[in-house]
Amino acid sequence: MKHILKSNCPDGLSEYLSQNPNATWENFVAVAQEAHAIVQDTIKKDQLGICCYCEIDFDVDETSHMKDFRVEHFYPKSKTLLPNTKENAHLTWSNLLGCCHGGTQRLYFKHDERFIKNKRKRHCDADKGEHDWTTTILNPLKIPPDAKIFTFESDGKMIVDKQCPMELKGLAQNSIDKLNLNEETYLKNARKIIRDGIAKQFGEFIQQGFSEEQALDRLRAIHLSDEIAVNMKFYTLKKDFVSY
Prior knowledge:
By secondary structure, the chain is mainly alpha-helical. 38% of the residues lie in helices and 6% in strands. The protein contains eight helices and four strands. 32% of the residues are buried.
């Protein structure tokens, strides 16, 4: 999980909400299809193309017949109104995030790496569902952008970093546990593969005569520069590796 800086609310959504203050998300999707498409695109861009919880990339690969993407309501839309502001939980921009399907849908024609047959091992919104975890887990919009919250072990396991601010440690651990962010069928293994790949690159740079700091600078340029253009899958893992 990482800090998400949201753009301004798309005009189509704000106009629809002002004209239909009690409308549901399903109403909006059915009636305002063009505005809905813009909302989806804006969410994807704001999040650098990755899930707000596990940081899987939405695009999957070129052979996929669908995107691993759905609009997530951080505060459950079934509750209708946001608890503090009493705004419409279905359509309030700050309540809309983008997340993956959590292993609940087959995404490949030929193979299904992200599809997890054991429902108890699924993750993200597949576990969250309509639970109200707004005060229990981290809200990606409220994660301090420069705080070091998580770190990763060599096998891809995600843990709370020692530098995590004390007031966030409980929320961070709950986020790992409740969202099942160490799910082993896909998430943990996928992170290990990426971590191993970066470690190999690091070793190659050292063998070429670069100092450790120079090698890390090169890795930052490869994996973290020009964030919109590069693959930001597992961004926090990559940032953690190249920052030590």
